[in-house]
Amino acid sequence: MGKDTKGFFRRKWFLRIISLILALFLFMYVNGSKSGFLRQNTRNNNQSSALMSNKSVTLRMPLDVTIDNNKCIVSGYPQYVKVKVTGPSALVTTTSNTQNFKVYADLSDLTPGKHRVKLKTSGLNSELTSKIEPQYINVNIQPRKTITMKVTIRLSTRDLDNGYKLGRPHSDIQTVQVTGSRDEVNKVNRIIAFVAIPHDAKDNIARQVTLQAIDRNGQTLNVVISPTTTNVSIPISAGSQSSSSSDSSSSSSEESEETKSSSRTSSRNDSSDSSSETSQSSSSISNEDSSSSSRNQ
What we know:
297 residues, 5 helices, 41% helix
């Protein structure tokens, strides 16, 4: 029995089967490892390709204007421009999130007047390319000018529906500084503080009003006013109806006093006349008595 078992394991066909099974296991193991390695390499390559592939994004950026603001005023340029940034995906994403560059127009060497200027970028990564829209802007450079002007109060109405009357308005600021381009400042006609008055107002009004610079046609001008606001107070008093009743009562009282005074004067005159008549009567009686006495003698 033991010899048969040993002989069984020594037979060629048994050894061949075992070798085939081992070879199959080894083949499956090697093939599986190779597939996993290939998959890992493919994934890494895809990620690297995604990071290195080009990408474009359009950003809305503020426009910086380089000029001496103490001497000149610039008008006509947009506040924001569009910038299309193209380059490696990772850099484009970072730039889009941080916006760590600027778009500017250098006007420092330009003279007063109208100019067409090309826009530029600064601080953008060298591996990125940009396209600005618009590429050129039109600007108007004017000398800076500052003047002092009085504040005028304008009311929405002068008449109230309830018979009350508006008093003289008062502003806590009498004059302001007006700054802007020379052409715009020269157009300023008045600095107004407009106050809207309710038609049923009965109490004094106090408002904080934003000042406006207007030309001769009443159009608002693009200038800087300092200070920008003023406090306006408007007294409101009882109107003509109450004043009329007060005046009529005053007239009645004056008429009454005049009537009383006339009565007293008339009475005094009557007394005086009566006394005079009495005196004259006494005098005539006395004269008659004296003539009678002389006849008797």
